[in-house]
Each structure stands twice: as C-alpha cells, then as structure tokens.
Amino acid sequence: MAARSQNSLALFSFKGIKVLMHWSFPLLIVWVVISSLGAGMDARHIFQQILYVLVVFCCVVMHEFGHALTALHFGIRTRNILLLPIGGVASLERIPEKPAQELLVTLAGPAVNLAITLLVGIPFFLFGNNAFVTDPIKGPTGSLALIGFIVTVNLGLFLFNLIPAFPMDGGRILRSSLAFAMDRVKATRIAATVGKVFAIGFLLAAFKWQQPMIGLIGLFVYFGASAELNMVTVQRALVGTHVKNVMRTRFWSMPHDATIQQAADELLSGGDHVVVVTRDGSFDRLVHRADIIAAMQAGQQLQQMQSIPGIVPESASLFTEVKDAHQKLSVGQWPLMPVIESGRTVGVLELDNLSEYIELHKT
Ligand SMILES: [Zn+2]
User: Fold this and answer.
1) How far does the centroid of ligand 1 lie from the alpha carbon of residue 337, in Å?
2) Prediction pTM value
C-alpha cells in the first residue's frame, strides 16, 4: 500500500525498517474511548481497553517483522511497516516471485503469532495462578487477565491471517501454493477471486454485526485483490519490454538554481505534478508540486529549488526491464521514476505510461 510518509509518524526503526503510525491510527484510540464511555466504563477500565489495543498492535508489529526479516533473508528490503487502524502493512520493495520464497515470507508473519501463543500460553495453562502472581496483595487478576489476553490475541491473529482472503496472508499462501503447480497469473486470478468472495463476506458480516473494522478489512481485501491481480497481469504483459520503449520523453525539468517563484510560474502555465530538478545537466532530485506550493506559502519565492529537500527516488536506465521498474513504481511512494543515462535524465516513467502502452499494444 503506497502512503506518502507525510501522512504518518515514524515511531522507531529496527534493522533499517521504519515503523510508521498512520495519522488515522489515533482515531482508533478515540473510538475505543468513546465506545467505552458509551458502555458506562470507569477510567480504570477505559485505560485497560487502551492498553489492550496497544498490546494488539505490538503483536501486529512483531507479525510484520516476521514477514520483513524473512524477506530480508532473501535480499528483499522492506521500505517500512505502516500501522493502520485495521492492522499493519509491511511494504516490501517487491513481492518474491518464486513461490517457495513467497510462501516462507508469508508464513513467517502468522508463525510469530503462533510462537507467542505457545511460548506464553503453555506455561500460562500449565502453571496457572502460581506462575504469574506478581503482586500477592492485589492478586493475580490484572496481570493474569493481560497474559490471557496476549494468548487470545496471538491465537486470533494467527487464525485470522490464515483466512484465504488474498492479499491477506492466507490468500498469499493459497496463491504461492497454486503457483507451484500452475502459471503465476492464473494462480493470482484464482486467489484474487477467492479473496473477493471473502471480502464480500466481511462486508456482509460488518453490516450484520455492526463492526466497521471488519467492513474496512473487507474493502482493503477487495481493492487489494484487484490491484495485485492487475499488477501481476501488467507485469506479464511487459516481460521483455525495455524502459526506453515505454518512458515519457516530454517532462517538466528545472535547474537547481531556478527560483521557487519560477517553478510556481511554470506550474501555473502547465507544469506536471512532479518536477525533475537538474544540477549541471545531471539528475539531482524530484520535487512534488505540493512542496513548491508550500514553499510559496512560506514566503520562500526567491529561494532556489535546491532549498526544497525533495526526494531521490530509485531510477531506471534505458535498458531496464519495464517489469522491474513497474514493480518498484507499484510499491514505491513516489509516482514517477526518472530514467537516467550517463547522469542525464532522458525520460520519466509513470504507472499511467505503462497502462497506456499495454492498451496500445493489446493483441
Ligand atoms: Zn501478515
């Protein structure tokens, strides 16, 4: 899922993988407080509810690290782990195409929750009250209830993620298992269809039981299944095509010492959503038009373009396979990829170019 990092807050980083909290995540806490107040709970119980939500998300983060660290083992980096009210999303820079790798990367997430369930659950049920009495005066209820909750949550996360609703983990397990025996596009089509059926089931369940979170998951699954089927189909259509045949050669470019006022003028007279900033003819950075507008509003008209940090995205060369560029563009957080040859930007690549190319070359 692509999300510009401005929409989220970086919490911490582990092995180079940033954990981000989406702006909507605190809404979940607000929702918990409001619904707890509605149920007539006192402050202590509301605090407990919030604590429980945070416990769930700690387990979700560990689950996502299961995916991310296994992917890293196969040389696939993870851009970040984003926490949304409906769960976590690890943005791998690419989905492994080898069925065995996809299967292992996918299994690693639920495996973390199963491990926590067993490691915490077995002593909990074997030794019960004796093992976890930390405060004999207050009694075991508080911490025991929390430990019981941790076991339940991890068992729940384990089972829930195994539902074969592609692109949820269970659906990925289905897709990669099918891909051992058949073509990957066909395997994805089957998994996506099964995923959509589950998504509709989630939506119906959300209405029946008045559970908006299940509804959101249903929408996420439905659109996620379509998007990923589309991605796999597009990539198949692009096998053997090089960036040079698909890239856009007319694009907006400005030197690094141009003023922000000049950029704003060009933006009004027909600029793009992103400008390629060059330094002595070589690629320097991309600047989004939102950043130009923000700089204008901050009264920085006379400053140079290089004062805007912008971004240096992954680039392609003329003979990069379009399939690889498409994969990076699809999971990336920037809508455009510069095509660089001998340091110079010779074109740009956008997802729209690729769709148009496929439409024009349909047989
Ligand atoms: Zn997962």
Assistant:
1) 28
2) 0.73
